[in-house]
Structure formats: structure tokens, C-alpha cells
Please model this.
Amino acid sequence: MEQTTICIIDDHAIVRQGLKELLHKIGNFKVINEFDDGDDFLQALPINPTPDIYILDYSMPNMNGIEVLKTLEEKQEEFKVLLLTQHLDEQIIDAAYHHGARGFLHKNCTAHDLKFAIDNIIKIGYNNVSEILKRVRNYDNNSEKKENIILTQREFDFLRLVCDERELTYEQMAEIMNLSIKSIEVYRAALFEKYNIRSKVGLVLFSFKHRLTEPFL
Model:
């Protein structure tokens, strides 16, 4: 079984150490990077090799977890973040998903919950899938209705590949569509601009909300 590599971003050394020890015990996980500050983490990007998943604390000095996510989505095209928080605030959770988080857990979660969340994010792309889909129904995305969604054929083809269960990279999408990566970036930017979307996760949620592509039809 392939080892899952992890980067921890948390301002408490005792929390990072505890997480490392726990992760070693509960699964085939290896912490390869750790940072005590969101700004230091972002300045270190790109990390080589790239961790499979980032475990990110919400409550940190200088930059909170949402602010880190906002900058991360600008710096790194593909990433998987599990947000840890002591605050089950609805706005925080909505903002986390909006900016690309793949799941969230309360810091009081069990070891089983942590392992389950990491495994879900690695295997299927998301944790709390039912929670994400429930929230997106109510998320304010300029209140657009499905009949007002107008996509070109290329934009639709791109969105369909974004929602593909294989979790294709943008490079793979470009190859399938027989286009350059620059063209893919143009279609992505167009959808981001037209529908106030900020991340790849946001594109998936957008398709779900308006039942635009498989597997949401």
C-alpha cells in the first residue's frame, strides 16, 4: 500500500508532534513537512516533493486557515487540504469549501475520524461529501438560476472533465481535449470570472448546484 505524505501547518509545536505520532500509529502516513505559521508555509511553496495532503489549522497568528487557503489556491493549481478547527462556525466552514478545502474536522475528533477523513480525501477527493453537497444548495453564488447558465461547448467540456471521477489534472484535461494548457487556463479563468468561482472544488460544486454535468444529472 502506497504511503500517504502529509504536511502539517499549525502554530503549536505540541499539536504538530502529537499529530505526527498519532498519524504514524493509525495508518500508512508520513509527515514530510511541518510549519508553525501560514506565511512561512506559503513562502516555502512550491514544496518538493508535494505532499499528498495538507493538514491546516484554522486558528493561527498572522494568517488564519481561510487566509492561507485563499493564497494557496493562487499559488498551487492542485491541492488537498483538511482543515482542523475548534470553531464550528457556519461562515468559516462555507468559506473553507469555497476556497478549496476538501474537508474539515473539529480538533476534538477521534483518531478514527482523522484517519477516515484523510483516507476519503485521498481516495475520493473529499471528506464530508454529503455536508458539502447540502451546503452548496444554500451557498450564495450570485443567486444565478440554471436557465441563466450559458456555457460555450468548450467550457462545458472542460467542466465535465473537472467533475470526472478520475480527478484529472489540468494537464490531463488539455491532452484529452487536444488543447494547450494555456487554453485550459483560459476556460477556467472564464468560468471563475463569470460565476464568481475561486477553485477547482468550486467548479465541482457549481456543476452540482446547477446539475450541469455527470455525475450530477
In short: Confidence is low (pLDDT under 50) at residues 140-147. The first strand starts at residue 4 and ends at 9. The CA atoms of residues 30 and 152 lie 43 Å apart. The two ends are 34 Å apart (CA to CA).
